[in-house]
Design a protein that fits this description.
heterodimer, A: mainly beta, 4-stranded antiparallel β-sheet, 10 strands, globular, B: mainly beta, 6-stranded mixed β-sheet, 0% helix
Chain lengths: 117, 115
């Protein structure tokens, strides 16, 4: 597609349940990022994938969070045993370049709004 | 530990006037800064960037100023238009993050431009 696609756009889940969030990056973009925005907070880096390299997981807040990127394309962010503090908008971005100055080339998806009740 | 801070949650200006959005940072290693704009229900979109070797970068109605000694940057929009109404995020990165493209974002400032 023309842009970064995320699904679902909204997700309401009960505390303790697992959720999966999906990101379809722009075709050909080798770098993929997950960020989240909690209420009143800035965008918080979660994880970064680049090609076949080991992902940078330094931003994942706990071991309940994991992410995969299959075939260098689609990525899934999984949150196990969800907690209320996991409620946030989860944003995925992809970019063609990985040079820092290439960060201007980020294309974000519209995000998944996760609400844990 | 908020390394990038946007202390004004909101700003309201009249159409045609200047909008000034501010951003402070604490990490002296940051050397590349960006501004993103976000409309409701959409992802952020890149607006303008500046490297620490510069103190000003201009793109049309948008100008970013960087004051390294004060660890402060600002985004000026002149003249402001109603379509500029959005949430604006500043972001920064440091050399030690190499080529990951990882960014630290501020909390955002909601700009409202009144007709």
């Amino acid at each position: 597609g023309a842009g970064v696609s995320q699904s679902p756009s909204n997700k309401v889940t009960e505390k303790g349940k697992d959720v999966e969030l999906r990101c379809d990056p722009i075709s050909g973009h080798t770098a993929l990022y997950w960020y989240r925005q909690s209420l009143g907070q800035g965008l918080e880096f979660l994880i970064y994938f680049q090609g076949n390299s080991a992902p940078d997981k330094s931003g994942l807040p706990s071991d309940r969070f994991s992410a995969e990127r299959t075939g260098g394309s689609v990525s899934t962010l999984t949150i196990q045993r969800t907690q209320q503090e996991d409620s946030a908008v989860y944003l995925c971005a992809s970019s063609l370049r990985t040079r820092r100055q290439g960060a201007s080339g980020y294309t974000f998806g519209s995000g998944t709004r996760l609400t844990v009740v | 530990d908020q390394q990038v801070k946007q202390n004004s949650p909101s700003l309201s200006v009249q159409e045609g006037r200047i909008s000034i959005l501010n951003c402070d940072y604490t990490n002296s290693m940051f050397d590349y800064f960006l501004w993103y704009k976000k409309y409701p229900a959409e992802g952020p979109t890149f607006l303008i960037s500046i490297s620490s070797i510069k103190d000003k970068n201009e793109d049309g109605r948008f100008t970013v100023f960087l004051n390294k000694s004060a660890k402060h940057l600002s985004l000026h929009i002149v003249p402001s238009q109603p379509g500029d109404s959005a949430v604006y995020f500043c972001a920064a990165s440091e050399p030690s993050w190499g080529n990951t493209g990882k960014l630290i974002f501020g909390q955002g400032t909601t700009l409202q431009v009144k007709p």
